Task: structure prediction
Amino acid sequence: MVKIDLKFVEGLTLEERASLVSGKDFWFTAKVPGVDRMMMSDGPSGLRKQDIDVAPSDVNNSVDAVCFPSSALTASSFDDDMLFKLGHHLGVAANAEKLGLLLGPGVNIKRSPLAGRNFEYFSEDPLLAGRMGTAYVKGVQEEGVGVSVKHFAANNREDQRFTSSSNIDERTLREIYLAQFERIVKEAHPATLMCSYNRLNGTLNSQNQRLLTEILRNEWGFEGLVMSDWGAVADHVAAIKAGLDLEMPGKGQASVDEIVAAVKDGRLQESTLNRSALRILKVVEKWGKDVTKKESYDKEEQHEFARKMADDSIVLLKNDDQQLPLNDHDSLAIIGELAAKPRFEGGGSSHVNAHHVVTPLDAAPANASYAAGYSLSETKPDEKLTEEAVQLAKQSNRVIFFAGFPEQMETEGFDKKTISLPANQNELLDQVVSVNPNVTVVLENGSVVEMSWADRVPAIVETYLAGEAVGEATWDILTGKVNPSGKLSESFPLRLQDNPTYGTFGKDHDEEDYREGIFVGYRYYDLHDMPVRFPFGHGLSYTTFDYSDLQVNEGSDNVEVSFTVTNSGTVAGKEVTQLYVANHVSRVAMPVKELRDFAKVELQPGESKEVSLTLSRRAFSYYNVKKQQWEADNGEYELMVGSSSRDIRLSTKFELTIGVNPLGEITDDTYIGDVWNDQDPQVQSALKESGLYDVLKPMMADEQWGAISANMPLRSLAATGVEEETREKFMKLVK
Ligand code: BGC
Result:
């Protein structure tokens, strides 16, 4: 293999260099003398390697591959190790299929429950999305396959995704929509990032210099390659100038010609073209493989992992009176066509030609009978199907009701119109519950479901899109073979109307204004103290966990938090312990609390373990827009440890001192009240030494006059009767 450096690139003809910056076709980079082409494929939950000669873009025609659970479910594991292992298995498969790059994971934030691609994204919370993405990327890349993390950035809706502008204020952008990418870039060093279709604050992402160069490369130090989403490039020359390297899939010779012409007529500097060509060749050098040498790999082992991943992620939402786990004696009615034709994967580019699908019906125990009850291709109830199902429910001890969104309702490429189940499912459920109250609802869906019926059923199990081992994993949970340990990575509101984007999401074809700012998901519901159906971080177990002994210690550079978790029940289980931080000091709008760390702990009955977590300054920081930097303010915080965002078991107030003074520099415009309340020893002694303290004391002691004075700046002290000399003395001392 030749040595890839700038000299090599400069030795290529202009035409060859121009050919490199576009895909050769749907899945390959271009070949130039000395460097072969490299293949890439989707996707996030299993390989979608297509036969380029037969059906390059037919999503249903790809190689046989194990279909793992979709990201909506894998994130519910809250388990970095599991995500690493998922990455490992995907890496093994991609390596055997000789792929250079795997396109995924998608790490965008779930902003609206209607967004069509939520199933493919991890969470409404950037810490969780970032942690899951980091572990996944590391797992894949360790196997010698590069990852393209997508979709950079703020790709939160599908309707008009090629043109709509995500209009986001700077703080929200940094804290909510970029933070997970930043973590993955800095910690996992992905080979590439895929820039998304949409515009950000008016500029197409593929042409967004600020996003692709200033933030990604200059600030975060990204050294890899930026490729476009498929068909995202509108102006190829502008895109390369802005920092995009590879246009996918490319427009054939037309792509080459436009670059050659732009260099010739001076619109594109040769050095800029060379820069991108070099980045592409470096990626091919590191990750490229000989596509003619396919190998086999152990798909049965991968299927078992797909089952384990689903086992550890499925969320037990409700379990009144220990409806679950099931016992062997009860006769079971399995109702719902989804039991026989499960939804186990998302539609669109992440579609996998699954190796071995085991449906819930295939895996059902012997004491179960089945009735379809509804048809997935219809939304209206069918009298005959309803009657059969109701009869079966009557004759059985317990009902396992399979419900969810049919695929035609939820896929990449468009947004949903509703988050209610189809009418035939809701109505059937109503009738079934009225003849047999012992109903467990098993949900198969890519994202949040409205559950008007939730109070009428004793048990609900959320399996999302559980991958090809859906049947085995579902019964593992229902029968108690596996103790559930998944937690929701998104809030389930009572109604769609409760979501902050309701009424505005997708309404304007061109502009999507992120009016709710940083208040996304639980940050919004908590702020308004709103009831939700199931909160972020929620998930039950067949055992119980007690929390005790919260300790907090500030070090010179971070804060150590520890506590003890005890399995106080009778079966072994895993608990996702969650650490939230509430900021009571910064002078900007703040969520009630934010997830800042989590750890999954496995415990035998009666066993206790100490959990130790380390919070860096960043965990206490917000993005200070004026200073254009992250800032951790000194002062009071509250640390909360819990089993979900709404089930806080331990909390303590904590005074941070390793940050900065939130007041910043004291100037003439600083308010009297701020100075008066500032605990900084230097400010306190300046107040005393200058004599200002003695003058202000009686004023501040008076409730009304004190409140008025607090709201006046230092430059107006004279108006409160303070001598100018005293003010000047204070200003000098405090500088
Ligand atoms: C999707 C990407 C995907 C690409 C290639 C696009 O439509 O948005 O996520 O990687 O197609 O299949």
Observations:
- Residues 672-734 form one domain.
- The pocket of beta-D-glucopyranose is lined by residues 42, 103, 150, 229-230, 349 (CB under 6 Å).
